[in-house]
């Protein structure tokens, strides 16, 4: 039994390396062949390309839109499911058990994302570890190129460890391929602060060894710095977070996209987009997104009225205080991002008036569907629909808002922080009133403004749940929420950190591993 378990650790590592599929252009468009003998691998740059492609492929997990079970919520183009754990949306399906988790039904055997968040993240980390440990064997590559490949793998590894710490807190830290030794079989859960330190080390290496260029599908220096700012913000290291985000701003490799807010989330607007800093990239038919099928056909993620009501009117006031708000025409004279993000009654789902959205006829209880990430040219959609929208994990607007937040939390509002927020508001097709810096702008007041701006700018991008958790207000917010089906949300304090899969605990016990414990409260 012991050897069987140890072999499972190694199998996961090798399987992650040889996983078929790809999600970026150039060599990342190639599909790694399955079950390559390791004795003949790591000889050429083509081998290194294949291994790096396998690392990037994990970003596209959940891509296969041939069935609702294959297009798993929470991964790749189905990352909008995370918003179903917040006050912005609810999940109407059972896909990956987000609906169970959202109502505090999570347990160590819930499965779905509760288990996959752990298991798939470690498969991705194993693939990255394998590349980092072996690429020096490829002597046909020069040292600079090998360092670049390591940097990309280390950034992806940091991406998944950051997700793990956000979900589970303390998690096993493995920075090298696991073996068949007792040490590999007896790993405990490393304290979160040590894992976060390792994440920052990976991101520092990546920022030093990746090219300082715009993003074209491969991680670049700005990607690493943007992630570092987000990690530091989560750690409440405000001064360091502000300084890191400021580097991205000052190095001037990215900009707010002026070609239309909606086109940030669909092709061809995403191609060579100056705002996108990291994404899961899709290229049908070999790798395609489930976006139109999941959100438009299956209607699995449905925005809540709490999000819709949060969009201000064009005068910069909320709907309760603005003279611009018309209860008979509630979507007029509102922040333009509302119409770009939310599908409400009468909006064309396709390209003709016959496709107008009717929530009653379609059984959409809350009255809304996502418009962000939807391409109406794909309507009518089905399980066979192959979407090409890339899922954006990090963009420049996020970095600007992180800078404003970190700067405010470290020393209060100043002109640079206000200017960063205003860059987001002044997008050409958004053009919301600019915030004025002055003595009446307090730290608390600016905090509320930044948090609101994050909500409407990053709506339905899988960010809100993690923002609420790091702000420490998720229970306060979620305990007031009721879903369109009448069910009330409930956020138990213990749910701040999820239970790891019970199978992992059972395996540890079978090996006599007393170092691996279940999350407290479960």
What's the structural blueprint in terms of helices and strands?
Elements: H1 2-17, H2 45-57, E1 89-91, H3 98-102, H4 113-134, H5 143-168, H6 182-185, H7 192-209, H8 221-234, H9 238-251, E2 276-280, H10 291-297, E3 301-303, H11 305-310, H12 337-341, E4 342-343, E5 369-370, E6 391-395, H13 396-411, H14 415-425, H15 443-457, H16 464-471, H17 474-478, H18 502-510
Antiparallel strand pairs: 1-3, 2-6, 4-5
Give the percentage of residues in beta strands.
under 5%
What is the β-strand count?
Answer: 6
Structural class: mainly alpha
Number of helices: 18
* Assembly state: single chain
Largest sheet, spatial ordering of strands: 1-3
Helix content: 40-55%
Mean pLDDT: 91
**Which ranges are low-confidence, i.e. pLDDT below 50, for 5 or more consecutive residues?**
1-22, 24-34
Roughly how many Å apart are the termini?
26 Å
Shape: globular
CATH class of the domain at 1-66 and 112-209 and 495-522: Mainly Alpha
Q: State the major sheet.
A: 2 strands, antiparallel
What is the string of SSEs from the N terminus onward?
A: HHEHHHHHHHEHEHHEEEHHHHHH
Give a quick rundown of the structure.
With 522 residues, this protein is mainly α.
Would you kindly provide a written description of the structure presented here, covering whatever features stand out?
With 522 residues, the chain is mostly helical. The chain has a domain of 192 residues: Serine Threonine Protein Phosphatase 5, Tetratricopeptide repeat. Helix 13 packs antiparallel against helix 15. The N terminus is likely disordered.
């Amino acid at each position: 039994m012991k050897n069987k378990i140890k072999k499972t650790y190694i199998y996961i590592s090798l399987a992650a390396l040889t996983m078929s599929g790809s999600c970026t252009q150039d060599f990342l468009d190639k599909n790694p062949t399955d079950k390559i003998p390791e004795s003949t691998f790591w000889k050429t740059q083509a081998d290194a390309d294949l291994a790096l492609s396998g690392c990037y492929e994990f970003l596209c997990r959940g891509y296969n839109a041939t069935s609702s079970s294959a297009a798993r919520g929470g991964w790749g183009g189905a990352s909008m499911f995370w918003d179903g754990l917040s006050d912005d949306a609810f999940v109407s399906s059972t896909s990956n058990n987000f609906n169970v988790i959202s109502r505090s039904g999570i347990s160590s055997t819930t499965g779905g994302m509760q288990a996959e968040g752990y298991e798939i993240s470690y498969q991705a980390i194993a693939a990255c570890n394998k590349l980092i440990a072996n690429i020096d064997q490829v002597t046909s590559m020069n040292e600079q190129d090998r360092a670049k490949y390591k940097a990309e793998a280390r950034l992806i590894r940091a991406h998944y460890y950051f997700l793990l710490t956000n979900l589970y807190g303390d998690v096993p830290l493995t920075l090298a391929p696991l073996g068949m030794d007792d040490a590999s079989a007896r790993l405990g859960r490393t304290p979160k602060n040590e894992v976060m330190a390792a994440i920052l080390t990976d991101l520092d290496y990546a920022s030093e060894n990746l090219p300082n260029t715009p993003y074209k599908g491969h991680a670049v220096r700005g990607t690493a710095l943007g992630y570092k700012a987000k990690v530091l913000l989560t750690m409440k290291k405000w001064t360091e977070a502000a300084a890191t985000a400021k580097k991205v701003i000052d190095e001037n490799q990215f900009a707010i996209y002026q070609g239309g807010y909606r086109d940030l989330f669909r092709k061809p607007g995403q191609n060579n987009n100056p705002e996108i800093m990291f994404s899961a990239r899709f290229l049908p038919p070999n790798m395609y997104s489930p976006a139109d099928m999941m959100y438009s056909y299956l209607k699995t993620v449905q925005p809540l009225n709490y999000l819709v009501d949060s969009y201000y009117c064009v005068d910069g006031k909320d709907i309760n205080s603005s003279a611009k708000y018309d209860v008979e025409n509630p979507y007029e004279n509102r922040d333009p991002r509302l119409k770009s993000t939310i599908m409400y009654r009468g909006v064309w789902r396709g390209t003709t008036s016959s496709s107008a959205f009717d929530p009653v006829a379609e059984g959409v209880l809350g009255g809304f569907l996502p418009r962000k990430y939807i391409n109406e040219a794909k309507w009518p959609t089905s399980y066979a629909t192959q979407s090409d929208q890339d899922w954006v994990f990090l963009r420049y607007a996020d970095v600007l808002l992180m800078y404003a937040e970190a700067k405010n939390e470290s020393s209060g509002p100043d002109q640079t922080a206000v200017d960063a927020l205003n860059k987001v508001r002044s997008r050409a097709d958004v053009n919301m009133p600019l915030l004025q810096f002055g003595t009446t702008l307090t730290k608390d007041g600016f905090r509320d403004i930044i948090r609101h701006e994050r909500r409407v700018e990053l709506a339905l991008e899988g960010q809100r749940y993690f923002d609420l958790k790091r702000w420490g207000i998720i229970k306060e917010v979620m305990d007031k929420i009721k879903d369109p089906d009448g069910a009330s949300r409930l956020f138990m304090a213990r749910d701040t950190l999820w239970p790891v899969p019970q199978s992992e605990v059972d395996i540890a016990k079978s090996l006599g591993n007393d170092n691996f414990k279940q999350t407290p409260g479960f």
